[in-house]
Amino acid sequence: MFKQASIVKLLLLFLLIFGIVKSESNLDYDEDEDSTATAPVEGEGEGEHLDARGHRPVKKKQEPFPSLRPVAPPPSGGIRYRARPTKPPVAGQKKEPVVFPDSGGCKHASEELGVLCPTGCELRTELLKQEKTVKPTIQDLTDKVKKLEQSSTTIYAFSNILDERLAKRQKQIRDNQNVISEYNREVEEHYSFIKENLDNNIPSNLKVLRGIVDILHQKLVKLDNAITSQLGECRTPCTVSCNIPVVSGKECEDIIRKGGETSEMYLVQPDPFVKPYKVYCDMTTENGGWLLIQNRQDGSVGFGRTWDSYKKGFGNIASSGGKNYCDTPGEYWLGNDKINQLTKLGPTELLIELEDWDGAKVKAQYGGFSIQGEANKYQLSVSNYRGTAGNAFLEGASQLQGENRTMTIHNSMFFSTFDRDNDGWINPDPKKQCSKEDGGGWWYNRCHSANPNGRYYWGGYYTPEMAKHGTDDGIVWMNWKGSWHSLKKISMKIRPVSQS
Ligand SMILES: *[C@@H]1O[C@H](CO)[C@@H](O)[C@H](O)[C@H]1NC(C)=O
């Protein structure tokens, strides 16, 4: 009896997971994955769902024991910048203003700074011009309407009198036939007055009104055309919707030293041979100068992407939160080639900030951070942990012991995506890859203690049944919230090591 019930339960659970997998098969991170090869539910009780996951325990004797790869420590200890000057050398040079290169055309003066979308200034000018002529016309129209109203009132009064007199006349017809002619004459007079009013006054007023309506119509057509032409201009080159500051530099620390003190989108050029590109610089947290390389905050960007996508970067750098500059970072991955190049410039530190769905915040900071080039599979190297989130990269998941823990260490790992398997999970099944199961591109071992590029789960808590492969594929930092709480926000920022 009990056995039957549990089989039925298992079947239902399996169907449910199969359904979830099918309904989400449009996600691109593991399209090629066989959807039935999932559900690690066999033999597991319900209570085990909240267990620490992250690792893939060694089951068979023939599986090679996981071991860590050798990796050179990141360049650390050295400094790239001396301490920042407390006062700017020349007050006037300190901060350059935000550019508005052309108040009319709204195009950026410098080509490599990109083309700005027209900000609507032209439209505003046009509207202001139109307003000047529309206003007196409306005043005139108001006067005319008032006059018309007055004459209508007069007519109305006369028609009332007429009514009264008609009534009187009818009464008097009976009394005195003689007065008929007299009244008739009077009525005729009133009639002719009313007729005159109707024939002359009202049509002439109507004519005036018609003219005004025509003028207004023409003006509306003009305004409409102005708006259409503005929209037309916007359509094609609308790649940037806010102004980019003139101040630029190799990276964000360079920019803050040159006077860029607001946290917003900047152009950086780490070396003269690469095209400048856009990044978000955090100029406030812990003294500023941070270059955002990864950001999750609302699930607006999918992170289940290809090797090529992670190589080049993806997502939205920043947008305007109401100001005329891009002050709000978007969700993005800067790109492995760019991160590699930035860490090649010299000793670099890494700041990872995390926030859960209750608004609690912790951080993990690594005094040394570098990643290799594509030829070395973007191998990760970190050092000198400090912080409150837990040292996932160097020590693995605190919930696991021994080999299980070792296989969740990220330091020294290669980068893996669902279409490029470089993880530490050596097994004969090509379908069993960390990136396929855990949702994003990352320095997977076997597999993770931290999964910042995992799937975004609204609300935070999720279960193996909700996950595509029954694995902890959320935005996980095991050392802080375990395997089954996906973070609300996580970001990774880098900065050149400098003297404090
Ligand atoms: C590793 O994890 C598995 C199950 O997840 C467990 O059975 C095994 O005892 C663990 N090994 C160690 C050394 O903790």
Describe this structure in words.
The relative contact order is 0.15. Helix 2 packs antiparallel against helix 3. This protein has helices at residues 2-23, 121-175, 179-235, 252-257, 307-312, 336-344, 392-395, 402-406, 434-438, 478-481; strands at 264-268, 277-282, 290-296, 314-315, 318-319, 328-329, 332-333, 348-355, 361-371, 380-387, 450-451, 476-477, 489-496. With 500 residues, the protein is of the alpha+beta class. It contains ten helices and 13 strands. It is 35% helix and 13% strand. Among the domains are: 123-209; 252-496, Gamma Fibrinogen, Chain A, domain 1 (Alpha-Beta Complex), CATH 3.90.215. Strand 9 (361-371) and strand 10 (380-387) form a beta hairpin. The strands form three sheets. Strands 1, 2, 3, 4, 7, 8, 9, 10 and 13 form a nine-stranded antiparallel sheet that branches. A two-stranded antiparallel sheet has the order 5-6. A two-stranded antiparallel sheet has the order 11-12. The structure holds 2-acetamido-2-deoxy-beta-D-glucopyranose. Residues 57, 401-404 line the site of 2-acetamido-2-deoxy-beta-D-glucopyranose.
Tags for this model:
single chain, about 500 residues, alpha+beta, Gamma Fibrinogen, Chain A, domain 1, two-stranded antiparallel ribbon, elongated, binds 2-acetamido-2-deoxy-beta-D-glucopyranose
Summarize the structure.
By secondary structure, the chain is of the alpha+beta class. The chain has helices spanning 2-23, 121-175, 179-235, 252-257, 307-312, 336-344, 392-395, 402-406, 434-438, 478-481; strands spanning 264-268, 277-282, 290-296, 314-315, 318-319, 328-329, 332-333, 348-355, 361-371, 380-387, 450-451, 476-477, 489-496. It binds 2-acetamido-2-deoxy-beta-D-glucopyranose (NAG).
